[in-house]
Specification:
Chain A: Pfam families: DUF3364, Oxidored_nitro. The complex is a heterodimer of chains A (519) and B (500). Chain A is an alpha/beta fold and 519 residues long. Chain A is built from 21 helices and 14 strands. In chain B, helix 11 runs antiparallel to helix 21 and helix 14 runs antiparallel to helix 15. The radius of gyration of chain B is 24 Å and the shape is globular. The chains are: A alpha/beta (519), B alpha/beta (500). At the A-B interface, helix 2, helix 3, helix 4, strand 1 and helix 5 of A face helix 3, helix 4, strand 3, helix 5 and helix 6 of B.
């Protein structure tokens, strides 16, 4: 018998026992109608070839293992960044169960969000009643200060008009007439989660700045000296936003974080469940119109939002998930220019420490080949940092990136001697990446949890940076922006490099002459 | 608040009724009226739990339910390992259900098995406008080229497919013919259908009937010689290896498991199932439909079983054996006896740490009732339970075989209700899903995910019971729960004392 009360075996060990192994072998031989192992091997080897790669890249209809999610996920993420705001997704309810699970699995935190639970009858007659009843119920039950509505693909296909529906719902008394219900149309068949973030943030700002859907006068801009900061869809939002606040405070800048969800995704365990915590206040969201400028850390997450803000006479600046020395320099110098505040010594010292760390360690990264995938901005930031370390980001792939992103990436590669053999792949998925890793191998892969399948198949060690990270804990608590965040990223990369050296040299009496304790 | 504390059942009932009244107060009148039907206190001797079920969730509440797509792709079809399951529609549904249910399987992933891959038609605006049939037709050609060892394909419809009127049945027929009778199954599991994932299970069962059974005559499909002891495991999704720690017991008692539905299952096993002498059904909710169909059409009897905890396992082994001859009956006794030392050791170790602890459950499928026996084997007391998507027959089974007088029952509980109930009752453990986990842990209440076994498992069978017992102990008796309040909170603050 395999199991033992004194030493209980988990699934990872239990099924390796003889009894189970024999049982599974018998199941396969007798009942599964398995393929000839020679055929399995043949196809497996073929799937690693250039011939397979060519067919794989020729596909037009099939997507396998995409590195993107759908719009409403980004909508929920953005809405949770406002004070006592309940995200409300208009459409079928299963979607919301998925968004809540997905975000909770990454952050290990509760994710509050409701749906209008549309079913067949709503598909035929439209979802107005669901929205009206739903707003009334959430308003009474969860006492939010604001309900931010977004749509699913279902509501979009049947053509539900949120502006009209919310108006009608208010007329029917579901929520008070002056209650804040900003909205955004976020069809899942357009863009990805970053588009949903963009649409929702724009929707919320539009609500406050442009007269609350015709129910209030438009705000008149009275320029002040504060700046707005937008993080974008970011799996590191907890660590990153706090790091950015620290930097702003060091510089003495007055700021508003737009969609600050750093607290709601990091509430304490102290006996109380906080459904709402922190967040940009509604007053600050409205007053953000008066800011001098808006800075976005992720261009491709905020295209529509920035264009909207620019239309309100603010300067807008977009970065691409800045990482490393030069990108952080740019970020700080831009802050300094826009706010007329000097960059303090403390930050200059942090810069020096990052440079120090890179000088100490770059020998281990220099010349190494990397593959990267993820959201377009993250890919850009990571690639730029690798080039700075003398590494080569050979394949950079982003399922939700555009042709314009590709050009920008290629320009980045062209700017560095280490970028000469590097290529950007917009619109491709992780099955494409698999072919790339087999036919043009690299030393390391950087990406989210799903990359572990690629690591297993191709043997390329995975450095987990991105969203979602389900199978490692608490990475989101550590920033990846700024000099200190870059240090965290550097350490992640180095840890994997050293682990690999140890793994490859640990064989006793064979390779362990290089099993060093000093590096 | 345990019943072991001598609290009378009458008192518990009164408290629970008051709790229900309290949570209903927060809703608008119409909603309160509707929700009232789903909340109850169990009265012993009643034929069901006194709640309405399988009714639409109320808009704007935090329901824990999913959708028909989740029921079909996520539960029934997704674990069939040698077929490719296309999430047909926009990217999200496939992405969120990718690898999240831990349906363990053995195979060469991406070559002859495909469970942990995400195949999607990734609908774009033009597909909504012009329809997706052409895209999925082409997609099937691409699958055939890139994944030539797939044994079959299913098309799992997401919301837009039904709304724009795509004809995935025609596509399936046409492509099946083109590929020499290949099994291609269209499944109309659009997320807006029905009130929860439950309808997705039913639709998926019907698709097996129409597109697998009706295509292949039962006597031609399987290559093996039948034996008098052939059974099929129905409704076990092999989460953390559950079906394996179940299968081993059945084989040890002398039965032959010719198919697993659907965890670690294969198309060949689906096709061979009509040759079974008995279908044994674990998750009644998700697969009773196809079991009833096989009974009607092929004359195969089915029986339910419960492999959580030694009491129910022994009871179930004997029940299954009762369909067979003495050889199997003796086999069942032999298996029960063989594992008794393990049961004794596990109980001796964990029962003293868990005796009298109270549990509140809220899960899907069979678990709101089936796991109660396992808790009782450890001396624990389930004081509240409810189903995400149960039907009346689930509540009947619960009332007649599982819950005690006075148990709080909540169907399709809303986040608000569940939080209030737990806050007031303060059970020693809550068992529910990922969406609930962190809410209750923040409140300082120990928690186990009872959908996915919190990344542990298996929990089925005797081997699984050992893990179950260990996990409950580790959750409840973790030292961390003694630290949720800062020590200075217990003592009066100096400033407050001064103020007094």
């Amino acid at each position: 018998m395999t199991q033992n009360a004194e030493h209980i075996l988990d699934h990872s060990e239990l099924f390796r026992g003889d009894e189970y192994q024999q049982m599974l072998a018998k199941k396969k031989a007798l009942f599964e109608n398995p393929h000839d192992p020679a055929d399995v091997d043949r196809i497996k080897e073929w799937s690693k070839t250039s011939e397979y790669r060519e067919k794989n890249f020729a596909r037009e209809a099939l997507t396998v293992n995409p590195a993107k999610a759908c719009q409403p996920l980004g909508a929920v993420f953005a809405a949770l960044g406002f004070e006592r705001t309940l995200p409300f997704v208009h459409g079928s309810q299963g979607c919301v169960a998925y968004y809540r699970s997905h975000l909770s699995r990454h952050f290990k935190e509760p994710t509050s969000c409701v749906s209008s639970s549309m079913t067949e009858d709503a598909a035929v007659f439209g979802g107005l009643n669901n929205l009206t009843d739903g707003l009334a119920n959430s308003y009474n039950m969860y006492k939010p200060k604001m309900i931010a509505v977004a749509t699913t693909c279902m509501a979009e296909v049947i053509g539900d008009d949120l502006n009209a529906f919310i108006k009608t719902s208010k007329e029917k008394g579901s929520v008070p007439a002056d209650y804040d219900v900003p909205f955004a149309h976020t069809p899942a068949f357009v863009g990805s989660h970053v588009t949903g973030y963009d649409n929702t943030l724009k929707g919320i700002l539009e609500h406050f700045w442009d007269g609350k859907a015709g129910t209030a006068p438009k705000l008149e801009r009275k320029a002040n000296n504060t700046i707005n900061f937008i993080g974008g869809f970011d799996g590191y939002t907890v660590g990153n936003v706090r790091e950015i606040k620290r930097i702003f405070d060091l510089m003495g800048i007055g700021y508003t974080i737009l969609a600050d969800n750093s607290d709601v995704f990091d509430t304490p365990t102290d006996g109380e469940f906080r459904m709402y915590d922190g967040g940009t206040t509604l007053k600050d969201a409205a007053n953000a119109v008066h800011a001098k400028a808006t800075i976005s850390m992720q261009q491709y997450c905020t295209e529509k939002t920035l264009s909207f803000i620019k239309g309100h006479d603010q300067e807008v600046v977009a970065f691409n998930h800045p990482l490393g020395v030069s990108a952080t320099d740019d970020f700080l110098m831009t802050l300094s220019r826009v706010t007329n505040k000097a960059i303090p010594d403390a930050l200059e010292q942090e810069r020096g420490r990052l440079v120090d760390a890179m000088a100490d360690s770059s020998a281990h990264v220099h010349g190494k080949k990397f593959a990267i995938y993820g959201d377009p901005d993250l890919c850009y930031g990571l690639a730029a940092f690798l080039l700075e370390l003398g590494a080569e980001p050979i394949h950079v792939l982003s399922t939700n990136a555009s042709k314009a992103w590709e050009l920008k990436m290629q320009a980045l590669f062209a700017s560095s001697p280490f970028g000469q053999n590097c290529r950007a792949f917009p619109g491709k998925d992780l099955w494409h990446m698999r072919s790339l890793l087999f036919t043009e191998p690299v030393d390391f892969l950087i990406g989210n949890t799903y990359g572990k399948y690629l690591e297993r198949d191709t043997g390329t060690p995975l450095i987990r940076i991105g969203f979602p990270i389900f199978d490692r804990h608490h990475h989101h608590r550590y920033p990846v922006w700024g000099y200190q965040g870059s240090m965290n990223v550097l350490v992640k990369i180095l840890d994997k490099i050293f682990d690999e050296i140890d793994r490859k040299t640990s064989s006793v009496g064979k390779t362990d002459y290089s099993f060093d304790i000093i590096r | 608040m345990s019943r072991a504390d001598n609290q009378g059942v009458a008192e518990i009932k009164a408290r629970n009724k008051q709790l229900i009244d309290e949570v209903l107060k927060v809703y608008p009148e119409k909603t309160a009226k509707r929700r009232a039907k789903h909340l109850s206190v169990h009265e012993a001797g009643k034929s069901d739990c006194g709640v309405k079920s399988n009714i639409k969730s109320i808009p704007g509440v935090m329901t824990i339910r999913g959708c028909a797509y989740a029921g079909s792709k996520g539960v029934v079809w997704g674990p069939i390992k040698d077929m490719i399951h296309i999430s047909h529609g926009p990217v999200g549904c496939g992405q969120y259900s990718w690898g999240s249910r831990r349906n363990y399987y053995v195979g060469t992933t991406g070559i002859d098995t495909f469970v942990t891959l995400q195949f999607t038609s990734d609908f774009q605006e033009k597909d909504i406008v012009f329809g997706g049939d052409k895209k999925v037709t082409k997609l099937i050609d691409e699958l055939q080229e890139l994944f030539p060892l797939n044994r079959g394909i299913t098309i799992q419809s997401e919301c837009p497919i039904g709304l724009i009127g795509d004809d995935i049945e025609a596509v399936s027929r046409e492509k099946s013919k083109e590929y020499g009778g290949k099994t291609i199954v269209p499944v109309r599991c659009e997320g807006f259908r029905g009130v929860s994932q439950s309808l997705g299970h039913h639709i998926a069962n019907d698709a097996v009937r129409d597109w697998i059974f009706d295509k292949s005559a039962p006597d031609t499909s399987s290559k093996f010689e039948s034996s008098p002891y052939d059974v099929a495991i129905i409704g076990d999704y092999n989460i953390g290896g559950d079906a394996w720690s179940s299968r081993i017991l059945l084989e040890e008692m002398g039965l032959r498991v010719i198919a697993q539905w659907s965890g670690d299952g294969s198309l060949a096993e689906l096709e061979a199932t009509p040759k079974a002498k008995l279908n044994i059904l674990h998750c009644y909710r998700s697969m009773n439909y196809i079991s009833r169909h096989m009974e009607e059409k092929f004359g195969i009897p089915w029986c339910e079983y419960n492999f959580f905890g030694p009491s129910k396992i022994a009871e179930s082994l004997r029940k299954i054996a009762s369909f067979f001859d003495d050889k199997i009956k003796q086999g069942a006794e032999r298996v029960i006896a063989k594992y008794q030392p393990l049961v004794d050791a596990v109980t001796a170790k964990y029962r003293p740490r868990l005796e009298g602890k109270t549990v509140m459950l809220f899960v899907g499928g069979l678990r709101p009732r089936h796991v109660i026996g396992a808790y009782e084997d450890l001396g624990m007391d389930v004081v509240g339970t409810g189903y995400e998507f149960g039907h009346n027959d689930d509540y009947q089974r619960t009332a007649q075989h599982y819950v005690k007088d006075g148990t709080l029952i909540y169907d399709d509980v809303t986040g608000y209700e569940f939080e209030r109930f737990v806050e007031k009752i303060r059970p020693d453990l809550v068992g529910s899903g990922i969406k609930e986990k962190y809410v209750f842990q923040k409140m300082g209440v120990p928690f186990r995910q009872m959908h996915s076994w919190d990344y542990s498992g298996p929990y089925h069978g005797y081997d699984g019971f050992a893990i179950f017992a260990r996990d409950m102990d580790m959750a409840i008796n973790s030292p961390i729960w003694g630290k949720t309040t800062a020590p200075w909170k217990d003592a009066p603050q100096p400033s407050l004392m001064a103020a007094e």
